[in-house]
Request: fold
Amino acid sequence: MNKEFLYEMLDTMSVSGSEIGLQKKVIAEMKPYADEIRTDYTGNVVCVLNPDADFKVLLTGHIDEIGLVVTHIRGDGLLKVAKAGGIHATAYPGHQVMIHHGNERIPGVVILNEAMTKGDIKDKDLYIDIGAKDGEDARKYVEE
Reply:
């Protein structure tokens, strides 16, 4: 694998439930090298080199990534989110994120519900701030 393809894979959105685009890229990249390429109903892509060999080596990786899904745009422009994949909500506040809207990417930062001052942080307490002045402004960039 070349470095450019690695960067392309890292840059391709592949949030849990939306992995097909990256799977297709992996298949296209590996086609010249693999003797067989197998897929299954769960989205696995298996590239096989020399399938009849007695000695086999397995290299594996995860193609999906954890993420957040915008579920609501508040009047103040903050984006309410729900989890996609297993997230640890306590690790998210302050993280920079990229919202994918078609081919556009909108940068944002994860913040906590303003009422959340202490205690166990849940994914329902997370919002994304994209710098919108209000809900109408946010809807120019993001859909609910």
